[in-house]
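Quick question about two entries, pasted in order.
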Amino acid sequence: YRDIARLETVLDGKDNGSEEMTKALNALVENRESVDNALRYEFSNGPMEGINNKIKVIKRVAYGFGCFTSFRLRIHLAFGLKKNCLISKD
């Protein structure tokens, strides 16, 4: 809900449950400023992380191929930057 007051209520509670839950809540408390900013603002690096991950997967699948031009073209095709292309044998 992006409700900072509600988060404060949960983090200030004394009975947090299991040991695992206590560890997770302590991590939130230690990073309180970052968590507050994440709730307050709409910015996210999620889309950029998704792009990086997709390129890394293409790179992993194409391991062993030495042609950078083909690798670059594969990235462009994956993101829809180029529609119809032919690879030259140069």
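Here is the second entry:
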Amino acid sequence: MNDALNSTLKIAGMGLQAQATRLRVVAENIANADSTAATRDGDPYRRKTVTFDSVLDRSLGVEVVRVKQIGRDRSDFRLVYDPSHPAANDEGYVKRPNVQTLIEMMDMREAGRAFEAGMNVIEQSRAMMSRVVDLLRS
């Protein structure tokens, strides 16, 4: 039983690591939602994405979640009319990041809930281990 609880803790921990990476990327996207290029020819901040993958953990004998890659969202930049901006093109438009704050907030909420679920698994596993130790003492 102890091996099963330890495996559960390791699996939950790997899930927490993946969601923590996702939260970090979302926070970076939100922080750079208004980051434009400093020059006319430059591009603004490009939204980052996180891709997960399930990988067989041979030591545990189960599939676990891992971050496969941190990529770049290739969607178009938004154009905003601001002829006084140093990065404005000849028509006066500035390329703005392809970050949509509402989508980032939804991703953050989802990742936060997944993180919370992983923490609940860890708390329950620890409580079960504590009960087993108490039973062995009696």
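Reply: The helical segments are 2-31, 101-137. The chain is about 50% helix and 20% strand. Hope that helps.
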